[in-house]
Design a protein that fits this description.
Helix content: 25-40%
Protein name: Glycerol-3-phosphate dehydrogenase/oxidase
CATH class of one domain: Alpha Beta
Keywords: FAD, Flavoprotein, Glycerol metabolism, Oxidoreductase
CATH topology of one domain: FAD/NAD(P)-binding domain
CATH architecture of one domain: 3-Layer(bba) Sandwich
Shape: globular
Number of helices: 19
Strand content: 15-25%
Structural class: alpha+beta
GO molecular function: glycerol-3-phosphate dehydrogenase (quinone) activity
Number of strands: 18
InterPro entries: DAO_C (IPR031656), DAO_C_sf (IPR038299), FAD-dep_OxRdtase (IPR006076), FAD/NAD-bd_sf (IPR036188), G3P_DH_FAD-dep (IPR000447)
Radius of gyration: 24 Å
Pfam families: DAO (PF01266), DAO_C (PF16901)
Mean pLDDT: 90
Largest sheet: 10 strands, mixed
CATH superfamily of one domain: FAD/NAD(P)-binding domain
């Protein structure tokens, strides 16, 4: 059981900004990517909008993604052509508006038959029932790829697909299962830092208007006399808040939020998806730098994905209880190992290579007897009422379409307020994607023009990590010599302090799990936790007992929620240093 850190009696500035003016035109509940996108869109229209999140920003379903921005080629079989078209369009837009975090991703499907699935696919299309799992063959996949390409007519944002026979396929990827007959290679997009992308969207909203306020660790705990009761999770303080329109963007917890407001609903039926991250150079080399995406024999879509020098393997699609923490089980690990063996039969994997596990609940609608993999990934907006105040509940949604979904929700809200849209987000750059150098020559110019107090290599690293928002930190670096962390030298003490100071870090896990990639890449050793806690304590003014409690809490989260063996991590990091 992860124990909370002792509460502080001091109210944070972000909470004070809301408590001291406890009203707004719009209250958005839930700071996953869809709530954040809606907040940003409304803030850009000049709306007085408040965003609250009971935990940390992007700490729920949005932090457990497969790190992809994709059109959803498999949704074609469900007949979800509108969703696929929108998803492909949004993928292409994000490659342009967020090029610092969203980049084209070459993806290969190994195919083991020619005509398999061609008879069962129409039945799935008509009924959305899974039936007996049947692997898709080349003919069916080819039809899907042609349709997929047809939705991506955007001046060549990504290349079109190509098919190869067995010989050419094995020449390109020699470690693949030699029993394959073909491969199909196409492009979607990677999102190598989803949490940081979401924080960029959030900051864009906050900085666009003095009427845009956002706070994490501020939860909705009920309603009273027509007002919503908010609770500061750090102090325990509660206060009433009123708004003209309420948006419930709580993701898998939408029904729980509505029940807390005294308006029970039964919209949701989310499923659990888990992933593991492997430190496995041999498997990394076997992928050839591309994602391997395929259908396992049980009908689930799975992936093997090179990311940050590691290999991520996912995902499952299991029924889940939103009242319980989602964790990756040993059975799921066995499943992942089985599928790796299916694709790369001569590459051995074992549990000692797992550096991180994560799991989340997808915000899917209730689906009755429809198999989880066939539940629509599309979204809808359901209107309710709270003492005369409209409550718009978001049901569904996915990372790829967050901008379009935020626009849709914002338009619904603007209609309720009698306001017109004044700003389009369609081509608006996001955060550090603004003025991002997208060619090698432009990148060299950007880096060399800032390589003064810092080396060119360090400036380039910061550009890769934060996009052009790196400028804010580079300017500070003129004032002091950087000190690399002893435990994770790719980060500096000044960089970590800047993150804690400017990005609403409240607990140590906000820093290790979401503001940085330290835990994801298996670098969260006991020594690293201690070093980061010491820096954070200095910025936030923690006393020694609070610092120790945060270290204990962080260790417990890594062990219980993310399957991290801290002793093994410490040994691995010690070997790395030597």
């Amino acid at each position: 059981m992860v124990r909370p850190t002792p509460q502080s009696s001091e109210r944070r500035p972000t909470v004070s900004a809301i408590a001291e003016r406890p009203n707004a035109q719009v209250l958005v509940i839930g700071a996953g990517i869809n709530g954040i996108a809606t907040f940003r869109d409304l803030a850009l229209q000049g709306i007085d909008v408040v965003l609250v999140e009971r935990d940390d920003f992007v700490s729920g379903a949005s932090s457990a993604s497969s790190h992809m921005i994709h059109g959803g080629v498999r949704y074609l079989e469900n007949g979800e052509f509108r969703l696929v078209r929108e998803s492909v369009q949004e993928r292409n837009r994000l490659i342009k508006t967020a090029p610092h975090y969203v980049k084209p991703l070459r993806t290969t499907i190994p195919i083991y038959s020619t005509f398999s699935g061609i008879l069962s696919a129409p039945l799935r299309f008509l009924t959305h029932k899974a039936g007996k799992p049947t692997e898709r063959g080349a003919a069916l996949i080819k039809v899907g790829m042609v349709l997929y390409d047809s939705f991506s007519r955007d001046g060549g944002t990504v290349p079109r697909h190509r098919f190869l026979g067995r010989k050419r396929s094995l020449e390109e990827l020699p470690r693949l299962n030699a029993g394959l007959k073909y491969t199909s290679t196409y492009y979607d997009a990677s999102m190598h830092d989803p949490e940081r992308l979401a924080l960029d969207v959030l900051r864009d909203g906050v900085e666009s208007s003095s009427n845009a306020r956002a706070a994490n660790r501020l939860s909705v705990v009920g309603s009273e006399n027509g007002a919503i009761v908010l609770r500061d999770e750090e102090t325990g303080e509660t206060f009433p808040f009123t708004a003209d329109v309420v948006v419930n963007a709580s993701g898998p917890w939408t029904d729980l939020t509505n029940a807390g407001l005294g308006k029970p609903t039964s919209y949701m039926g989310g499923t659990k998806g888990s992933h593991i991250v492997l430190d496995h150079p041999e498997l990394l080399e076997a992928t050839g730098g591309r994602e391997i995406f395929f259908e396992h024999e049980d009908g689930r879509i799975v992936l093997i994905y090179p990311l940050k020098g590691m290999v991520m393997v996912g995902t499952t699609d299991l029924e889940a209880d939103p009242t319980q923490p989602a964790v990756c089980t040993e059975e799921e690990v066995d499943y992942f190992f089985d599928l790796v063996k299916h694709v790369f039969p001569d590459v051995a994997v074992d549990r000692s290579q797992i550096v991180y596990r994560f799991s989340g609940i997808r915000p899917l609608p209730g689906h009755g007897d429809t198999a989880p993999g066939f539940v629509s990934r599309d979204y809808r907006i359901v209107e309710g009422d709270l003492a005369g105040t409209p409550v718009l509940s978001l049901v569904g949604g996915k990372w790829t379409t967050f901008r379009a979904l935020g626009e849709h929700l914002a338009n619904e809200v603007l209609g309720k307020l009698g306001r017109e849209r004044t700003v389009s987000t369609t081509t608006l750059p996001i955060g550090g994607g603004r003025d991002y150098p997208t060619t090698p020559a432009a990148r060299r110019v950007w880096v060399s023009s800032r390589a003064d107090a810092l080396s060119s290599e360090r400036v380039d690293e910061l550009l890769e990590r934060y996009g052009t928002r790196a400028d804010a930190f580079i300017a500070l670096a003129d004032e002091a010599d950087e000190q690399p962390l002893e435990t994770v030298p790719s980060y500096s003490r000044e960089e970590i302090a800047h993150i804690v100071r400017t990005e609403q870090v409240v607990h140590l896990d906000d820093l290790l799990l979401r503001r940085t990639s330290i835990a994801f890449t298996g670098r969260a050793s006991r020594a690293a936790i201690d070093e980061l806690a010491e820096i954070t304590a200095g910025v936030l003014g923690w006393d020694e007992s609070t610092r120790e409690a945060e270290v204990e809490r962080m260790a417990a989260l890594l062990i219980e929620r993310h399957g991290v063996d801290l002793d093994a991590t410490s040994r691995r990091e010690s070997d790395r240093v030597r």
